[in-house]
Design a protein that fits this description.
alpha/beta; 43% helix; 15% strand
Length: 343
C-alpha cells in the first residue's frame, strides 16, 4: 500500500512540476476516426488564448491508444485516449494495474462504420450476410473461397471482392466486426448462437469474428486517407472507415447501402444505419489539475459538439441533447467511470 501511494505521489509531482513552467502540452493518442475532431478542438484551444502550447494528438488506433494511455500516471504518459469503440473491462483492469484507476469516459458524438465506393464504382447494395460471406476468414466454419461478389450472392456482379480497411489495432475494425460481421454470421450460420453460448470462445471467434487475410481484405493502416486514395485508383474496390471521411470526400465517393440503408447523417443519428456507433474520449482524472489547460480543453470540446457546431461540419454526428448534457456534466464534475459498466 505504501509503495502504491509513493508511486502516485511521485507521478503527481512529475505532473505538477510541469504546471509552473507550462512546458507540458496536452497529449492525446488513439483512434484515427476521432482524430479529426480532437485536432479541430486542439486548433480552437490554441487560437482561443495566446501563449498556449498546441496539444499533441497522435492517430495510432483505438486499441494501441488505450494501451499507451493505460501505461501509467505521470508527465510521460498521455492524458486522453481517443476511441471509436468502448474500453473493455480487460483494458480497464490493465489500466488499474498501472494505477490508472480514475478514468472519465465521455461520448463526444456518434459515427457510422461506413462502406464506401468510388462514384465510378458498380453501385453495390449489400446485406450484412453478403459482407460476412465475403470477408469472414471461415464463414460457417469453413475456409473462405469466395473470389467475386457473385460467389457470395448470385444477384451481385461478378467483380473481384476487394475491400480496403483498417488494421487489427483499430476501433473501427472492432466496430465493423461487432456491427456487420457478427450479425451477418448469425443470419448466414444457424449454429452461430450455439457456438457463442459455448464454454470455449474460439470456435465462435473463428467462424464469426475473424477477417480473412488471403487477399480480398487489404489492411491500409491507421491513415484512412490511404483508403480514400485507394478507392479513387480502383473504382471496383470498397473501403471501410468512419462516416466523417465519407462526408469529406462525397465529391468522389458515396456510401454503400447495407440492408437497404445508406450511411448518412440522419440514418446514423436515428440508429437506422446498422453501422452506427458512439465515439469516446477517456481522460485521466488525476491529470486534470496537473496538466495546464486540460480542463479548459475538455470544456471547449463540449461547446463544439452541438448539432450546429464546428465538429458536425467535420463529419461528427451530434449525440442527442440529453446525452450531450450528461457528458458535459461528467467533465464539469470530473465523474469517473464505474468499471462494472464495462464488458
Amino acid at each position: 500500500m505504501l509503495g502504491r501511494l509513493a508511486l502516485i505521489a511521485v507521478s503527481a509531482l512529475a505532473l505538477s512540476s510541469c504546471d509552473g513552467s507550462a512546458t507540458r502540452e496536452i497529449r492525446v493518442v488513439g483512434s484515427s476516426t476521432v482524430y479529426p475532431f480532437t485536432t479541430a478542438v486542439a486548433e480552437a484551444f490554441v487560437n482561443a488564448k495566446s501563449g498556449r502550447k498546441a496539444p499533441v494528438v497522435e492517430s495510432i488506433g483505438s486499441g494501441a491508444g488505450i494501451r499507451r494511455f493505460c501505461e501509467g500516471i505521470g508527465a510521460q504518459f498521455p492524458d486522453i485516449a481517443n476511441a471509436s469503440r468502448r474500453m473493455t473491462r480487460n483494458e480497464f483492469d490493465r489500466c488499474k494495474a498501472n494505477h490508472v484507476d480514475e478514468i472519465i469516459e465521455v461520448v463526444i458524438g456518434l459515427d457510422g462504420v461506413a462502406l464506401a465506393e468510388s462514384n465510378q464504382g458498380p453501385k453495390l447494395q449489400l446485406s450484412k450476410k453478403d459482407i460476412y460471406l465475403a470477408l469472414a476468414a471461415d464463414p460457417k466454419g469453413q475456409p473462405n473461397t469466395a473470389k467475386t461478389w457473385k460467389d457470395v450472392n448470385p444477384a451481385l456482379p461478378a467483380i473481384p471482392i476487394l475491400v480496403m480497411g483498417p488494421p487489427s489495432t483499430s476501433g473501427t475494425r472492432d466496430a465493423f466486426i461487432e456491427l456487420m460481421l457478427e450479425p451477418g454470421c448469425k443470419e448466414a450460420y444457424p449454429d452461430a448462437e450455439k457456438l457463442k453460448a459455448g464454454v470455449d470462445p474460439a470456435p465462435y471467434d473463428k467462424a464469426c469474428r475473424r477477417i480473412r487475410d488471403d487477399g480480398p481484405y487489404v489492411d491500409k493502416g491507421e491513415n484512412d486517407n490511404l483508403i480514400v486514395q485507394g478507392l479513387a485508383q480502383n473504382p471496383n474496390a470498397l473501403g471501410i472507415f468512419g462516416y466523417s471521411y465519407l462526408e469529406e470526400n462525397k465529391s468522389r465517393l458515396h456510401g454503400v447501402p447495407v440492408d437497404g440503408v445508406e450511411p448518412t447523417y440522419d440514418t446514423i443519428a436515428n440508429g437506422h444505419y446498422p453501422g452506427a456507433r458512439p465515439l469516446y474520449l477517456y481522460i485521466k482524472k488525476r491529470h486534470i489539475k496537473a496538466v495546464p489547460g486540460l480542463k479548459d480543453f475538455l470544456t471547449l470540446y463540449t461547446t463544439m459538439w452541438a448539432p450546429n457546431g464546428p465538429l458536425v461540419k467535420r463529419g461528427l454526428i451530434a449525440a442527442p441533447d440529453k446525452m450531450r448534457e450528461r457528458m458535459a456534466e461528467r467533465i464539469e464534475l470530473e465523474l469517473a467511470l464505474d468499471p462494472a459498466e464495462l464488458h
